[in-house]
Amino acid sequence: MRGRRRPALRAVMDISSLRTAVVEGDRVEATAATRAGLSAGIPARRLLEEALIPAMATVGDLFRRREYYVPEMLMAARAMKACMEVLRPELVAAKVEPLARVVGATVQGDLHDIGKNLVLMMLEGAGFEIVDVGVDCPPDRIVAAVKEHNARLVCLSALLTTTMPAMRDTIVALEAAGLRQRVGVLVGGAPLNQAYADEIGADGYAPDAASAVDKAKEVLARLAGD
Ligand code: B1M
């Protein structure tokens, strides 16, 4: 009985210590806890969903309550990114065959890239080929990347209400470049919802990284059927 309880207890401890280390922006502790979690047999996806993502939600709450300021938020984000690099090989291990080429970006004016990176990592794991054009991406840079890499899907992320309109600008730029017929546009990010995606003429909206994979496949299937 004891022997059966121990691993579960260890798993709980690793997950909570990882969450705390990320909230506190302790990159060294956080990456050590991530490695310890993996060594203890906790799946990468569980570490992500039960420690890293909730940690960032806590950081957001602390920021909203003015208990955290930008430097603390930045340190937490850096710790999370370092942990994601540790998890990356595990998360993309399921890769099977290239499905389509995807251009991913955080839109103009927006520097938040953790969610975007996560979505692209999941897509990569699902077999998509990824062209990451980074953060603060003006529409013309995204258009150029679609042309250069002959992408079939554009994934746009925005975390600020003030940068959401840059998604519409990007869709307009794709239209103006004559690319809109052959490229799907998937959008996401904490302030978005399906209604906004419909309003700006996106082909799909996903609330999280896991559902972004299914939505990407759905958008591409619809595009192929048109
Ligand atoms: Co900023 N920030 N931030 N920030 N930040 C938020 C977003 C905020 C909600 C915090 C708050 O007030 N509680 C708030 C936005 C308010 C609003 O507009 N409504 C905010 C603010 C105000 C700001 C600044 C303006 C602060 C300032 O300077 N005064 C500033 C803006 C800078 C800029 O972008 N121009 C700023 C800066 C920063 C840092 C640089 C310090 C840092 C970002 C570091 C980085 O990304 N490299 C940061 C952080 C870390 C946050 C919080 C705490 C965490 C964001 C995050 O990474 N979440 C955030 C509060 C919060 O979200 N709780 C906050 C974890 C990530 C996994 O989730 O990105 O939502 P998320 O992605 C999810 C889904 O949204 C979805 O899947 C992901 C995984 O499930 N998703 C998609 C995302 N993209 C998708 C695309 C898809 C599909 C799904 O398809 C293509």
Keywords:
226 residues; alpha/beta; 9 helices; 60% helix; disordered N terminus; binds CO-5-methoxybenzimidazolylcobamide
Report on the architecture of this protein.
- The structure is a single chain.
- This protein has helices spanning 2-23, 27-39, 44-64, 70-91, 114-125, 139-149, 165-176, 194-199, 209-225; strands at residues 101-106, 129-132, 153-157, 184-188, 204-205.
- Helix 6 (139-149) packs across helix 7.
- The N and C termini lie far apart (59 Å).
- The chain is globular and about 50 Å long.
- The protein is built from nine helices and five strands; from the N terminus they run ααααβαβαβαβαβα.
- By secondary structure, the chain is an alpha/beta fold.
- Helix 7 links the parallel strand 3 (153-157) and strand 4 (184-188).
- It has two domains: 2-93, Methionine synthase domain (Methyltransferase, Methionine Synthase (B12-binding Domains), Chain A, domain 1, Orthogonal Bundle); 101-225, 3-Layer(aba) Sandwich (Rossmann fold).
CATH superfamily of the largest domain: Cobalamin-binding domain
Gap from first CA to last CA? 59 Å
Tally of individual helices: 9
Anisotropy-based shape: globular
Number of strands: 5
Mean pLDDT: 88
Instruction: Report strand order across the widest sheet.
Output: 2-1-3-4-5
Helix-strand pattern: HHHHEHEHEHEHEH
**What's the Cα radius of gyration?**
19 Å
CATH architecture of the largest domain: 3-Layer(aba) Sandwich
Do you know the CATH topology of the largest domain? Answer: Rossmann fold
